[in-house]
Write a structure and sequence with these properties.
Elements: H1 3-12, H2 21-30, E1 32-36, E2 41-43, E3 48-49, E4 51-57, E5 60-64, E6 71-76, E7 81-82, E8 91-92, E9 96-99, E10 103-109, H3 110-119, H4 121-167
Antiparallel strand pairs: 1-10, 2-9, 3-8, 4-7, 4-10, 5-6, 5-9
Helix pairs in contact: 1-2
Length: 168
């Protein structure tokens, strides 16, 4: 893997776009590289997520479920960060990631990411603001969905009452 190429890929990851060139270089140099052959598993659904994984070469498919219940969740290429939340908090992988081609990836463990944010508090503040904005936006969208579901519940209740009134 080329350090310059890895830095360029990391720069394209939205979460890492606040990082300076030197910070990206340190991250790329300190992170682990992984290679997964076509058909290989990058990670499994339910597996402990100890950090993020950035795809640098190849394609990966995410899927959930097992056997006949397997459902594809998307196909992703270079520059994709899997496990953004796992960079900041303990969790489990919500899906299985399978290499559709020979892949190269960069694993950024949570401890490394945390250390980077401690050493560069201004970057940590920028990430915090970005996350707060994203959270506020998601909460507003969910509130809108909640109102729509309330409307559906009200319609359903009205329908039940009309059916009950017709039966009388």
């Amino acid at each position: 893997m080329s350090l310059a190429r890895d830095i360029e890929i990391l720069r394209r990851v939205p979460l890492l776009s606040q990082f300076t060139e030197d910070q990206l270089r340190l991250l790329a140099f300190s992170a682990e590289t992984m290679q997964v052959s076509e058909g290989g598993i990058v990670f499994n659904e339910g597996e402990r997520a100890d950090g993020g994984i950035v795809l640098t070469i190849g394609k990966v498919q995410l899927e959930t479920g097992v056997g006949r219940d397997t459902r594809p969740r998307g196909t992703y290429g270079p520059g994709t960060l899997f496990g953004e939340n796992a960079l900041m908090t303990e969790g489990k992988r919500p899906a299985r990631a399978t290499a559709l081609e020979n892949c190269e990836l960069i694993r950024v463990r949570r401890a490394l990411f945390s250390r980077m944010l401690q050493e560069f508090p201004e970057t940590a503040r920028k990430l915090y603001v970005d996350k707060a904005i994203a959270f506020t936006s998601a909460a507003a969208a969910l509130a809108h969905v909640g109102r729509k579901l309330d409307d559906v519940d009200a319609l359903n209740e009205r329908h039940k009452q009309e059916v009950a009134a017709k039966r009388r």
